[in-house]
Amino acid sequence: MYDVIIIGAGPAGLTASIYLRRNKKKVLLIDALGYGGQIINTKRIDNYPATPGIDGFTFATNIYNQAKDLGAEFAMETVTNIINKDDYKEVITKDNTYKAKTIIIATGAKNRHLNLPNEKDLIGKGLSFCATCDGNFYKDMDVAVVGGGRVAIDDAIYLSNICNKVYLIHRNDTLKADKEEIDTLRSKDNVEIILNSNIKELIANNNLEAIKLDNNKELKVNGLFIAIGQVPNNDIFKDLIDLDEYGYIKSDENCTTNIKGIFVAGDTRTKELRQLVTATSDGAIAATKCINYLNN
Amino acid sequence: MIKEIENNNFNEVRESKGYAFVDFNATWCGPCRMLSPIMEEIAKSNTVYAVDVDLNDELATEFNVNAIPCVILFKDGKEYKRSVGLKTKEELEGMID
Q1: CATH architecture of B2-93
Q2: What does each C-alpha distance from A139 to A142, A161, A194, B67, B84 come to in angstroms?
Q3: What is the mean pLDDT of residues A252-275?
């Protein structure tokens, strides 16, 4: 029996494990995709205190090693269900059933798709969700980025240094990022910003060849980088845990859920600001609530 | 154990019988680095090769790899299925019939 099982080993879950191990609680982290969560896709983190410029993989590995050194256990498995028993909880994975007194859900979020018919088939054939991973394959070519948030803008800036031409396509007229980033974007001669536009068709012949906008304008591009935000990953919990209309776990700054002994941390809960620093903050709060619950 | 493709030893894959996983990756790609312990797990019961695309760009071109991590499952030396992005062990092993 574990004191706490943490589902999801991104920054929120890993930080929770550090706080729990420092209180000598027996902790298991479960994540089928290894540790780190979304942050491993980030080439450079500049908005987290004390580590300017660190890359996401190193950041994640640092927290993971810190948690491991403190004695957190780790299982690379897919969680399929959780069950609330009278005095304990069960976490079911494809291969095992684990028991714990409490659970912290820290499953984060995954990339939102455009939901165009041939989108899934074109992933890896012109479509990408990771500019830093795949940008080099589009050296001197024309590409587009879709999205208007910080990730989209960072991707467009990054790609402008590699590609011939970069279109940034956004559905409304407001780019949401720091002024400094927007200024950098606007200073790039090879970036064309197209506002109030949606992509309505992906034109491909095995690989992506062009995209069609809702005004029927066609842009010839070899690559399309999708950065339109995230969706939560909470389907397996929905019978037990209250979710909001978007699928996020209903909670607040206390990181509690509708079930006693089940807490939530990070991007997967209702919140206004989804950032690295708010994820790690949630990890600390959820762990502290868990410790109080276990000690009473 | 994962075999690193180097010095043009890709013929080993072309001449292989049965299934072989080939993991196209790069050192600067976070999801690729995260995939490597998953591939290590898969390698316990399967043949697994790793291709660093920076050192083997001719292979990335030949197999039309333009997003990584990209895992191509070979069957009797020919591409059979492929998977792009960070995936679980179950998803990757699920490509085998």
Answers
A1: 3-Layer(aba) Sandwich (3.40)
A2: 9, 9, 22, 13, 20
A3: 95
Using a CB-CB cut-off of 8 Å, the residues of chain A touching B33 are 40, 57
Interface test with A, best of B29, B52, B56, B59 (most A CBs within 10 A): B29
How many angstroms separate the CA atoms of A238 and A133, rounded? 33
Domain count within chain A: 2
Query: For chains A and B, what is the number of CB pairs under 8 angstroms?
Result: 83
How many residues belong to chain A? 296
Q: Which of A41, A125, A127 sits opposite B30 (nearest CB)?
A: A41
| Same domain (yes/no): A222, A234 | no
- Which residues of B touch chain A, with CB atoms under 8 Å apart? 26, 28-35, 37-38, 41, 60, 64-70, 82, 84-90
Is A134 in the same domain as A222? Answer: yes
CA-CA distance, A126 to A206, in Å (whole number)?
9
- What per-residue confidence (pLDDT) applies to A63? 97
Q: Test A124 with B70 for CB contact under 8 angstroms.
A: yes
- Smallest Cβ–Cβ distance between A124 and the set B33, B34, B66 belongs to B66
The C-alpha atoms of residue A229 and residue B86 are separated, in whole angstroms, by 18
* β-sheet with B48-52: strand ranges across: B2-4, B48-52, B19-25, B70-75, B78-84
Indicate the residue among A172, A207, A226 that finishes a domain: A226
- Give per-residue pLDDT as tens, A27-80: 999 999 999 999 998 888 888 999 999 999 999 999 999 999 999 999 999 999
This complex has an ipTM of 0.85
Full-model pTM: 0.87
Q: Is the pLDDT of residue B26 over 80?
A: yes
pLDDT per residue over B42-97, tens digit each?
A: 999 999 999 999 999 999 999 999 899 999 999 999 999 999 999 999 999 999 98
Domain hosting A219: range is 119-226
Closest CA to A264 of A289, A245, A239: A289
